[in-house]
Amino acid sequence: MALDIVLGIVVLGLLIYRQVSPRRVSATALRMTLILGIIGIIQVTNFLSSDHHSTAVFAALAGSLVLAAGFGAARAATVRLWLRDGEAWTQGTVATALLWVLALGAHLGYDALVSHGQGESGLGTASIVLYLAVSLAVQRLIVQHRAGRLLAGSAAPGVRSAVR
């Protein structure tokens, strides 16, 4: 369980670092999201294999992943996009980084709230990497959609090359 928390914090640090660094928007960037998703599924499966099969656990997990998607959508709105040499580039802002930290806090807070009195503690730490993967996937899909609009709009004369 402590390993799950440490892994989650390391992943969060890596995500924030990568998010605030300027990067080309690329469909292949989903590779990291897929790797995190697989690790997260393994961790959740290990948690569930140790006799945590109640409906409350699955409902809590679903609620947590909805929360992750909401934070991903919110962060996507804080990411700066621009064109350079005909390619879309992205960079997270301070607000993006703060929303990552808030998302992790919300995940752990939600787990504490939901598992209180249920005897199902540990779900939050077991699902932390999956939560981050889902949140990242939603953010990336929205940013890729925005980048596609930016690229399509750049073909029109007089169009500015930055989107907020």
List the helices and strands and how they pair.
Layout lengths: L1 H19 L2 E2 L5 H19 L6 H22 L3 E5 L2 E5 L2 H22 L7 H4 L1 H27 L7 E2 L1
Antiparallel strand pairs: 1-3, 2-3, 2-4
Helix pairs in contact: 1-4, 2-6, 3-4, 3-6
The 3D shape can be described as: elongated
**What number is the mean pLDDT?**
85
- Give helix % range: 55-70%
Work out the radius of gyration. 18 Å
H and E order: HEHHEEHHHE
Mind summarizing the main beta sheet?
4 strands, antiparallel
- How many domains comprise the coordinates? 1
What's the total number of strands?
A: 4
Outline of the structure:
The protein has 164 residues and is an alpha+beta fold. Helix content is 69%, strand content 9%.
Walk me through the structure.
The chain is an alpha+beta fold and 164 residues long. The chain has one domain (2-155). The protein contains 6 helices and 4 strands. A 4-stranded antiparallel β-sheet has the order 1-3-2-4. Strand 2 and strand 3 (87-91) form a beta hairpin. Helix 2 (30-48) packs antiparallel against helix 6 (128-154). The termini are far apart. 31% of the residues are buried.
